[in-house]
Amino acid sequence: MAPSSTSGVWTLLAALTLLSCNIFIWCEASRTSGTTTSGERDQEQGPSSLERVKRGWVWNQFFVVEEYTGTEPLYVGKIHTDSDDGEGNIKYTISGEGAGSIFIIDELTGDIHATERLDREEKAFYTLRAQARDRLSNDPLEPESEFVIKVQDINDSEPKFLEGPYIGSVAELSPIGTSVMKVTASDADDPTYGSSARVVYSVLDGEKFFTVDKNKGIIMTAVADLDRETQDRYELVVKATDMAGQMGGLSGSTTVTIVITDVNDNPPRFPQKMYQFSVSEGAAVGTPVGRVIATDADMGENTDMSYLITDGGELFKVTTDMETQEAVVSIKKPLDFENKRTHNVVVEAVNKHVDPRFVDLGSFRDQTIVLVSVSDTDEPPIFYPADGTIMEVQEDAKVGALVGIVTARDPDVKNKPVRFSIDRTTDQEMIFHIDPDSGAITLGKILDRETAGWHNITVKAVEADNHTMASQTSVSIRILDVNDNPPELATPYEASICEDAKPGQLIHTISVVDRDEPQSGHRFYFNLAPEASSNRYFSLLDLKDNTAGIRTQRSGFNRHEQNVYFLPILVVDSGPPSLSSTGTLTIRVCGCDTDGAIQSCNATAYVMSAALSPGALIALLVCMLILIVLVLLILTLKRHRKGQRMTEDEEDMRDNVIKYNDEGGGEQDTQAYDMSALRNLYDFPEAKSCDSGPDIRSLPQWIQAKRVGGSGAEAAAAAATDFSLFKGYIRKKVEQADADLSVPPYDSFQTYAFEGTSSPALSLSSIHTLSTTSEQDFSYLSEWGPRFRQLAGYYAPGNPEEERS
Fold it and tell me: Mind telling me which residue stretches traverse the membrane in this protein (predicted)?
């Protein structure tokens, strides 16, 4: 901020502020009848009437100029109430922001002064409250009123670039007016008051190449020929001035760095128009010859380039080293010093990324010549032809016969003598020899084409005075065939005929094999051997396709008279020379069925053919299956019957548990009791009709006594009474079992032990029965049948005389 140099200016501003801001506004407010105002007397007009009360004092905001530099406190304004009669009874006070420190008030007059220098940029306004009190009682005469003191702005803040310094970029060769970037300056002054915060922009340094929009702060190019290769960055100074650039305005500046980015506007260039390299003629294919590089004034991917050969690419090739961007020239095919000693290779460099906007600047490619000199080296001998030799020799050639000649020479200018040899790892049997000087290959052993039709050997050639210079080639020797093997039957043929064969029947066809391979192919001739010329049974027919057929000449063969015939056959080849051999065909006479199928070829026994028809096999399988089923059925029936027998035995054992009070006939009485009675445990006598009457012999003795002693009706009633006791007991137990929830719902077997009343038969002990005092009569035992006859004899009454005797 720039303080004023004279105090008169500040005095004038203070007076103006006092005149414009010290204004009182009187107002009226509606109140209810119960409301009173300090210094006013209430008027009573009833509960619903309204009264108009005159407000004491109200004021608006005050203004004070910032950056006051005077020595005296700056007058701000004056507060006053209509209750003040000028006699000094009123005391004015203020409270709030800055009260008592920044702002002070005269208690008698209400004048407010600012004691400190104010800065609107730090605080734009202050809120305070004014109060009028009675000086004696200190009672408030009016309610507190709030007012605002605003700080009046002056142009004391210069524009500032808060984000500077700035860095921007623009592509080279951009057209005029291309936007680069935007800069912004801020002014702390009040933008709503005057032009203190209105900023304009301008370029102080670098205006030749760039301009700036004075209102928006946008930096633009001023020329169209910005060249990164000439200057890759520019430093600008941009100024911002407030007061819209008028005289007396404050200003601030910042630096702007503008980087020029690259475009592909430069073609590649070789530093030299010719490069020279030397390489040995013995260098292998793919060996690098040399490296060349083209330079590009651009940068980044705009320098990427590829290389190609436009001339001389028959023996050389070029590749691009992606890391160094160099062209690597290497050998594509073997070089020959003796054939050509110098090669001119034209290498061209081409940009990969061509910008179509700059095509009119020229061709983005360049060429250079690579001169390659081939140096001579000592080379091994070279064979002619280089890819090997094929030779032929007859298999009947004599030892020492010439097979062929291999040729090799030294390719160097000196053309040194060459020596030949055979690699014995490829000819371990030493079948061939070679002359070391001429390279002539001769036979060392007799050949056999049927054993080996080809021989592959390796021939070496070395320089006579430098054996390290060696080379080798493959020689394939084909053995030509001569007819030195007779034809033979292909297999030991055997044929079979039926006894009832008819004349002229073809019984067999034979073929032959020959180990020889004549160039014109095989041709064989068949005849019967001289010893078989008188044969009257069979004839031979040459089928003209190197096979022959055997036919019968008669009928009625009998295998019991002769079951085997041997037919010698003579086979002759076409030569030269013609060779022959004799083979034997074995013909067996067999018995056949009506369809001509052979059944037996044995002369003494007839054996059925082992081959069974499908129908016979099926019938045999069916029979076997039926037998298996029958066996299983028999076993099942036996097991079923055995189970039934075991069940009956178990039932007998269970049903034989019975209580009865009769004594049997003793240990010797084996037929005294009928077992059927034990099996009918529940066939009690009372269930039968009383008219017919039960069989008394089948009842216990205590029942008999009652039935014999009384009438039939009485006995039946007595028996029913006794059995009713057991029935009632059993019925009770059955009811208990039915009511028991733990018993299963299905039928179950229950066992109960119940003795009932004492038996009327008393004891059957022999001790009591032998006493003379016994009144019991056992004569009824004799009526129970033969089973109880012996027991009845024990208890029958005896004769006293007999007893005494």
Answer: 616-637
State yes or no: cis peptide before 576, omega within 30 of 0. yes
pLDDT confidence band for 612 (50 / 70 / 90)? low
- Class of the CATH domain delimited by 61-152: mainly beta
Q: Which tens digits make up the pLDDT trace of 644-697?
A: 665 555 544 444 455 555 555 555 555 555 555 444 444 444 434 444 444 434
Q: Are 518 and 487 in contact (CB under 8 A)?
A: no
Backbone dihedral region for residue 555 (phi beyond 0: left; psi -120 to 50: alpha; all else: beta): beta
| 23 to 59, 97, 356: CA distances (angstroms) | 6, 22, 76
Work out the burial of residue 278: count CB atoms within 10 Å of its CB; fewer than 13 is exposed, 13-18 middle, 19 or more buried: exposed
Q: In this predicted structure, which of 238-252, 645-659, 752-766 has the lowest mean pLDDT?
A: 645-659
Please enumerate in sequence order all residues whose Cβ is within 8 A of that of 203, keeping only pairs 6 or more positions apart, or say none: 210, 211, 212, 219, 236, 237, 238, 239
Q: How far is CA 628 from CA 616, 619, 632, 770, in A?
A: 19, 14, 6, 71
Residue pair 56/38 in contact by the 8 Å Cβ criterion: yes
Closest to 514 measured CA to CA, from 484, 543, 540: 484
Residue 36 has pLDDT above 60, yes or no: no
Residue 14 dihedral angles phi and psi, to the nearest 5°: -65, -40
Residue at token pair 């920044």: 102
Single out the residue of 121, 80, 128 nearest to residue 102, CA to CA: 128
One-letter amino acid for residue 324 of the chain: T
**pLDDT of residue 168 exceeding 70:** yes
Q: What backbone torsions phi and psi does residue 518 show, to the nearest 5 degrees?
A: -65, 150
Report the alpha-carbon distance of residue 567 to residue 305 in Å, rounded: 91
Homologous superfamily assigned to 488-600: Cadherins (2.60.40.60)
What distance separates the 2 farthest-apart alpha carbons in the chain? 194
CATH class of the domain defined by 160-261: mainly beta
Q: Where in the chain is the domain with CATH 2.60.40.60?
A: 61-152, 160-261, 274-375, 382-480, 488-600
The candidate with the shortest Cα–Cα distance to 462, out of 404, 427, 416, 428, is 416
Is residue 345 scored above 90 in pLDDT?
A: yes
Structure-block tokens of residue 23: 């204004």
Burial class (CB in 10 A: 0-12, 13-18, 19+), 799: exposed
**232-264 exposure pattern, b = at least 16 Cβ within 10 A, e = fewer:** eebebebbbbbbebeeebbbbbbbbebebebbb
Among 74-78, 325-329, 476-480, 801-805, which is the least confidently predicted range? 801-805
Both structure tokens of 213: 């929009």
The predicted model scores a pTM of 0.41
> Which tokens hold the place of 790?
């012996």
